[in-house]
Every structure is written in structure tokens, then in C-alpha cells.
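Dear colleague,

Following up on Tuesday's group meeting, I ran the structure prediction for the two-component complex that the binding team flagged. I've pasted the input sequences exactly as they went in, so you can double-check that nothing got truncated or mislabelled along the way. The C-alpha cells for the whole assembly follow below. Feel free to forward this to whoever is handling the docking comparison.

Inputs:
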Amino acid sequence: GENVEQHPSTLSVQEGDSAVIKCTYSDSASNYFPWYKQELGKRPQLIIDIRSNVGEKKDQRIAVTLNKTAKHFSLHITETQPEDSAVYFCAALGYSSASKIIFGSGTRLSIRP
Amino acid sequence: DARVTQTPRDKVTEMGQEVTMRCQPILGHNTVFWYRQTMMQGLELLAYFRNRAPLDDSGMPKDRFSAEMPDATLATLKIQPSEPRDSAVYFCASALLTSGDTDTQYFGPGTRLTVL
């Protein structure tokens, strides 16, 4: 079945700097890769997603890149702000996993003032 | 702004008691997921339904957990008997999955379960 690995587990960056979180997946049939942000005590919320027919997608300060050959995808946050502090989860979904999204283990991002 | 709702938001119970958590998916969504979140295990998929039929419950301890969808507007997760190790936040999520495509999962606010 699908396996998703996420790194790093914790990340601390200076406000204004960039943050990068990386994930790898095992199922080559995976075709949908969402990223969720979870603030303390809140529900996970989708912040950006990418489908397998696209290599990169950007939404303001957030971008996601996908390398299907290497089976990895990354989240890039530029000009980080205090409100970016949260746990970020990557996920992958593929037909071979019967439309079951598999989540990575999460990255706790802290923005230092 | 349609949202997934869950009740109760918090539940404290004693070991051995039955616990029932409820979820109302977004109207029109055909897929419902149950997740458990702990500090140690992250987000674990327990079970999910498509058009009210259970598709996968391999993540769920079968001896004490059960999940059902009595109708399209209600999903339930039951634990009987509950144990302290079941303490976690339980999230429900719903999505509209169509043939050949995928869609976003929307999470409910979660039920924080504490078993003493």
C-alpha cells in the first residue's frame, strides 16, 4: 500500500525566511497530493494541492512542487510570518489505494520573531 | 459556508463505558472518513465510507470499534468498551469523490476523547 514519509518533523525558521517541507511517496499510481495546515487545537485545513499532471503550483506565499519520477513533493513557504506557525501534513492519494489518502507524519513549523 | 460538524466536541468517560461520536458530512459529499490523532501516531485513518458503504476499516480495532452510516447525513463511530489508550482526538472528514477524479477532504472540528 501507499506510504508517505515527511521531513523534517520539526522546523524552526526566522520570520521572513523561507521554509521547505519535503515528502516522498511509494505508490507510483498516486495522482493527488494535498497539504494541510493544523493550528493548535484546530482541525486540519487544506492550504494547497497539486495533481500529477502539474509540476508546480503557487498561491501567494505558498508553492508546491512535484517530481513524479523521483516520487517526491515539497511545500515551500516564503516570507514566513508568525501565523505560519502550525503543524503541516502532506498526503498522497492514488487509485491503487482505493482513493484512500495517506498522510505524512507532520512537520511542526515554528517561526522565530 | 458548508462545514463538517461533529458531536460531542469533548467527551470524558470512564474505562469500560460506551462512547458514540457523530459526524454530519457536508451535504452532497459521498465519502466520509474517520481519523484518530494522537501525539505519538499522528493522523491515523480508521475507516471510510463511499455512498454509505464501508470501503476500508482496516485501521480500526475490530473488537471494540464500529463505524456506521445510518443515512447520508450521519456517520457514527462507536467504542465499546472504551480503554484509556483510546484517548485521542477523533476527526471526521468528508469529500466528493467522482469517478476518475479526486476532491478535497474537509475536516470536522474533532471530538476530544478522554478515557479515565
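The first strand of chain B starts at residue 5 and ends at 7.

Cheers,
M.
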